[in-house]
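Job type: complex structure
Entries:
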Amino acid sequence: MGIIQKVIDFFDERYFKYVDTPGWKPTVPNNMKDFLEGVMKKPIPDYATHPMYCLGGLAFAAFLLQIATGILLGMYYKPTPEAAYESVKFIMTQVYMGSLIRGLHAWGANIFIAAIVLHTFRVFLTGSYKKPRELTWVLGVSVLGLSLFEGFTGYLLPWDQLAYWATTVGLQIAGTVPVVGDIIVQLLQGGPTVGPNTLSRFYIIHVVLLPLTIMGILAIKFLMIRRQGISGGL
Amino acid sequence: MEEKEKVEGWPFIPNHLLMEAFAATIMIAGLIFLATYFPTPLGDPADPFTTLTPIFPEWYFLPLFGFLKFWIWDIGPISAKVIGVLAPGVFGLILLLLPFWDKGEEYHPSKRKKGIALMIIMAIMLVLFSYYSIITEVV
């Protein structure tokens, strides 16, 4: 058996040929009614109605809220050293409900990460990462890592003293990583110190690269959860 | 149709989605409360020539800072600082590869001593190093 066949078997066993609920056929429907019924009536097992199983969904809700509030902030925010601080000040003082939206975005970031961390502990506790769900776990841990990076890049954007120096210290620490440290700093900082390049790089990473990546990972993750069902049988 | 009766639990829509929406509503209410009564501050404009001290990182980076300050011992040719920055990577890698280490058939926490022990150790490390980061002055 070749290595390719082994890889195919790995995914077949865990996803394509896996059936979690007896009597629930994971076939692709050929009409809309069956499709919708499959989406809507998919049974959630009793044990998964425990409140601690809410955390993943909460993290996703927080993610959606971050996108909504982030888009609103993006309507006024200007990612250049000359204009960034003033644009945030404008949002805080002039824009209708601007300070509320910014507050929601900043607090929402904390709640988003807190929900992911707690969700990770829940999955750890219930052993839900076991076969066939290993890859779902790996994807989840990746989302956790990416959202920490979201927090780090978002922190710089207001371009106030705390933002500037926290990023300077953070990048200094990243620079001490052996071998790749210098490359990481060059890529992220784009100059000898935190400056205009850093701001535009952090901005595009924060509002495009990371959200798109997280969305892609979540889409795959949700498809896998759908197929594999919610782990249980404690 | 007969086969489908084996399926237990409630349907995703509306039951489960409603429960999630309920939880999300509470969360959003809490967020509006926080954002209203504890608004996010905006400090002085960034000034590259005036260093700001002390700098408080976000709470989720506290364990990282704490370990960096805590670990002051070189191991052979590897300096303490390098160990300090690589440790979170090792931590993440252990987390990432967890399913390929804790295999076994058992799911219940009481029957997974190894896995749960690792979880408790990791949780304690996060809390302790966060605490250490708070009590010592941050760079």
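Summary: The two ends of chain A are 35 Å apart (CA to CA). The first strand of chain A starts at residue 43 and ends at 44.
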